[in-house]
Design goal:
binds heme C, 5 strands, globular, Chalcone isomerase, 28% helix, 30% strand, alpha+beta, 5-stranded antiparallel sheet
């Protein structure tokens, strides 16, 4: 009985990890996002509690489907939102964009990403499609905070302004 339990547990663990890698649950790289709609920008300065992970200057971009979500409150499958995080360079009483740190992505697909509220989360280091920072850690690393603090707005924090 004990052995059967072990086998079942292992099989479950294995099929879960296979599903994450081969089952299509990986977030797509958001090619062309710099041509999408710019939603907003924000600078997180040293001293902010999220500075370690998200410090710097970020711009948020939304594709057409995500724009429908921002305006209606309901994000349809295919909606993609990008959190483009850059370093900050100060000098001459100006704050300028520095090198890219990471391209954070939320991709909406209620079926593929059902474990994380219908959103897939990924971070591409320095914007490199091959360097994934999140992988199968999306629940703990990303969705936990979005689910808890942005529950009333479909897990999306930012809002559209005219
Ligand atoms: C501790 C809370 C927290 C965690 C953890 C977190 N985020 Fe966010 N995220 C935020 C907040 C707050 C904003 C809104 C920023 C703004 O308004 O400029 C945001 C915005 C975003 C956006 C733009 C859409 C939106 O919700 O406004 C994306 C994309 C995003 N995060 C991806 C990620 C990814 C990928 C991870 C995991 C690596 C992650 N986030 C982890 C708090 C969090």
């Amino acid at each position: 009985m004990k052995a059967l339990f072990l086998v079942l547990t292992l099989t479950t663990a294995m099929s879960t990890s296979t599903a994450a890698s081969a089952g299509g649950a990986a977030v797509d790289y958001p090619h062309g996002y710099r041509n999408w709609t710019h939603v907003k920008s924000l600078i997180l300065e040293p001293g902010h509690p999220l500075y370690g992970a998200f410090g710097g200057l970020h711009h948020i971009y939304a594709n057409d489907r995500a724009m429908k979500g921002y305006k209606s409150g309901k994000f349809p499958d295919g909606a993609v939102i990008v959190f483009d995080l850059l370093e900050v360079e100060r000098g001459g009483n100006a704050i300028a964009e520095g090198p890219r740190k990471i391209v954070g992505v939320m991709q909406r697909d209620a079926r593929r990403f059902r474990d994380t509220g219908g959103w897939g989360y990924e971070g591409f280091v320095q914007g490199d499609p091959k360097q994934r920072a999140v992988g199968d850690q999306a629940k703990a690393a990303c969705h936990g905070c979005h689910a808890e603090q942005a529950a009333k707005t479909g897990y999306v924090f930012s809002a559209w302004r005219e």
